[in-house]
Amino acid sequence: MTIQVPRPRTRIQKRNTEAILDAALEVFSATGFRGATLDRIAEVAGLSKPNLLYYFASKEAIHTALLTHLLDTWLDPLRALDPEGDPVDEILGYVRRKLEMARAYPRESRLFANEIVQGAPHMLPEIEGPLRRLVDEKAAMIRAWIDAGRLAPLDPHHLIFSIWATTQHYADFDVQVRAILAPDGDGHFAGAEAFLTELFRRALDPR
Asked: How far is the first Cα of the chain from the last one, in angstroms, to the nearest whole number?
């Protein structure tokens, strides 16, 4: 039996694929899945629609590719929680990593938020599967720290949800934050980090 080995993509194919995904991220994060069109994605990517369809068969295929990569990236900071580390330092480090992701990847955060608001039609299995398992694993670790008297008695799942809410707010509601604060560039993230670090430090202190 002959095994077909896929040929590596050319430099131009890699460049076009990246251009399509970046354009799709821009369009999906701004308009949501329903508002996005292949014509608009192709226009932003600087490609013709037939050329785009050479790389991705449908709008759904592009959306799925983006979300699959995004979920894996989004979970990395949570995976990094170290059971051998100091509990307060580990969780505050997680807060800072999530806030940095909100600063560096606002479009990705809004893409994920749009998917959730729509009922997660394209990634509910991933949320109910890998995401839930990871959150349960880290919640159990936090619970062990609490039981050992190393953290204040907080519900671990709601603690994680609170971290998501307070950090991703700066990406998902970026327009509102900037309209109120009128910051110079991303200068407001330093203030957000200082505030959230103190907020969670006080909440986590077992004393």
From this structure: 68
What is the spatial distance between Cα 55 and Cα 191, in angstroms, rounded to a whole number?
A: 42
CB-facing half-sphere around the CA of 165: CA atoms within 13 A: 7
Q: In 3D, which of 189, 41, 183 has the Cα closest to residue 106?
A: 189
Picking from 62, 56, 51, 61, the residue whose alpha carbon sits closest to that of residue 22 is: 62
pLDDT values of the chain reduced to their tens digit, one per residue, 207 residues: 344 433 446 888 889 999 999 999 899 888 888 889 999 999 999 999 999 999 999 999 999 888 888 888 888 999 999 999 999 999 999 999 999 999 999 988 888 888 888 898 888 888 999 999 999 999 999 999 999 999 999 999 999 999 999 999 999 999 999 999 999 899 999 999 999 999 999 999 998
| Burial class, 24, CB count within 10 angstroms (exposed 0-12 / middle 13-18 / buried 19+) | buried
Structure tokens at 168: 């991703």
* CA-wise closest residue to 162 among 203, 129, 205, 125: 203
Taken in order of first residue, the domains within the chain and their CATH numbers are 9-57 (1.10.10.60), 66-204 (1.10.357.10)
In the numeric block, the tokens 């986590």 are attached to: 204
pTM comes to 0.82
